[in-house]
Amino acid sequence: MTTVDATTPAAAAPPPPAALPPPMQLREIVFGAARAASVRAAVRLRIADALGEQPASIGELASAVDVEPDPLRRLLRSLACCQIFAETADGHFRHTEMSRLLREDTPGSLRNIALWCTEPWTWEAWPLLDRAVRGGGCVVNEIYGKDFFTYLHEDAPESARVFDAAMTTSSRQSAADVAAFLDLDGVKDVVDIGGGQGHVLASLLERHPALQGSLLDLPQVVANADPRLRDGGPLASRATLVPGDCRREVPVEADLYIIKNILEWNDESTRRTLANVVAAARPGARVVVIENLVDNSPSSFTTAMDLFLLLNVGGRKHTEDSMVTRMTEAGLKVTDIRPVNGSLHAFDSTVPATGRRQGVSDGS
Question: N or C terminus: fewer CB in 10 A for the chain?
């Protein structure tokens, strides 16, 4: 797509708005769906990708993304109200720090996350939040007559692709932080449990040339693992791809087990996963659980994701206490809790020398 570079100079950023009175604040909140829809529209129209380093007129932008000028101006004005794009004094539009995050080529882009959080199924599920709160469980099964991931792969393949892209984006962005954070002194082998495409594992293997590693995830996931880990990749000789379901079995022994952002689907799958890790691990092995916590987040994003998980899989984002409780109940001894970055916390634990527990099957 052609990038628009107009020559109009950018106007100075407007001062931050004064705090709104409570009635207006509430109106802003209940119209939140309009903001989310506006972001989705901007991403799907690729407006951020089309806008270059200089402000551009509505006519130039409309031509670049093949839309009508008047509706485009209305969309951009709505987004500019929340600092996504900005309007100059002469009616042109320019990038802001947030609008740049919607570009595909921006490091740390949130384009895929924005699409995932506004997929068509979300607009059917959110209005039923009261039902999920009343019943304590997900509503997706009720809407579609099947569990969430079955629905995605059978009925909404495009949404499934968006989900995969969003998870890949998120994993890539945090992998380097996790690799820099973890102290691997004395660790010879590591297994990433439910590690997706293996970005964390690849980052660890690159950082520690003597380390051996395994990636355990569903067969269709590990089949598309990070190319660095697959046959012919630079890390393949030190990586083992293990197809399987950690909720059924963890068939790998290692010095260190990493469990990142998968203990949030529902309490039963969390219990089974932790029990299976403890059953597989030798006494003294380390287990590091890495999660977003609802009680240690500087924004409302994690609490919103907590409700998102309730709706689609009956899951939850944990508090520090609830995570420690679940790990302790599984037989782990939690030894340390520290922030990895601004959004992730790591729970370091060991498998006691008193012996392994029996793994837990899902009954299937």
Answer: C
